[in-house]
């Protein structure tokens, strides 16, 4: 433990603690509760049956009137992340409360019809709790219903289940592509002479030495309508007009397989090097055809390397962002793209943290399923 403690401390300081802090944003509601203390107290007595009493209306006006401009804008932005349009409602109510210090509950009701909607108060009550599940529910296309309980989002707002399915589908296709292409490459590296193998592995490792931005830009040049790939296909007569190979699913898969291929080849290569070639010759001497010898003798021995490489490719592909953003279309963006949007553009860290939790849980589910499979008799028989 003394030997590994510096490494553990470094991982905890620069990775684990910041990640936990980021993911905790999915539940935090400190700013709303601190900025609206009287509203928080008044809504604790509300049973979500109809509208709250007049005390809650007056408390909202009182809390908003005493807020400075910057905190009021922050609260309005936070509530607007839960329901579009609440920002203008909060700002308008604050302006009215500043202009009329004695604003009554009836005056607030007449100020904007949304104060007469149970949904508005339901969102406000949820955001004044110690912790809110609203962002995590939104990440799985759910919400807290005005009367309590959990309800499905309307179809026009329910997008993240589709995005999560797309993320798994692209990751699976990339993994299959790496297995199909990488297995022969790894076998060629094992069986090739040392000098040729050194040259081949140089090409395999080349994507590791190139930045993601340069790699993606290179594929844009190669796959565009006037690019080298389309020009080659036109010259050999394979196509009659330039094909759409970029800014779509094809471009995403090609670019991601190119980047992820070394992550599959290297683990498989280390396993293949431990398999003696004499075993295949022994199988042939006992009358086994080449295909039978490969399937029953060679493949079971290298299967741990295949599984390790495929798992590495799949889990890393789940969190890909730059490559799909640069070479994919609007319908090819994965879950991490939305995390970046909520973090950098809309500054909705709560939603970004919730989507981050979904990504972490997805990886955990994949690892858990694989762990269960490894414990079965059928897996051990392989």
How many beta-strand segments? 2
- The helix-and-strand class reads mainly alpha
Helix content: over 70%
Alpha-carbon distance between the termini? 35 Å
By DSSP (H or I, 4+ residues per run), the number of helices equals: 20
Could you give the order of strands across the largest sheet? 1-2
Which SSEs are present, and which pair or pack?
Blueprint: H1 5-24, H2 30-35, H3 37-43, H4 54-66, H5 69-82, H6 86-99, H7 105-111, H8 118-127, H9 134-138, E1 142-144, E2 150-152, H10 160-191, H11 194-205, H12 212-223, H13 228-235, H14 249-272, H15 278-285, H16 290-318, H17 322-327, H18 335-344, H19 349-374, H20 377-381
Antiparallel strand pairs: 1-2
Helix pairs in contact: 3-4, 4-6, 4-7, 5-6, 10-11, 10-14, 10-16, 12-14, 14-16, 15-16, 18-19
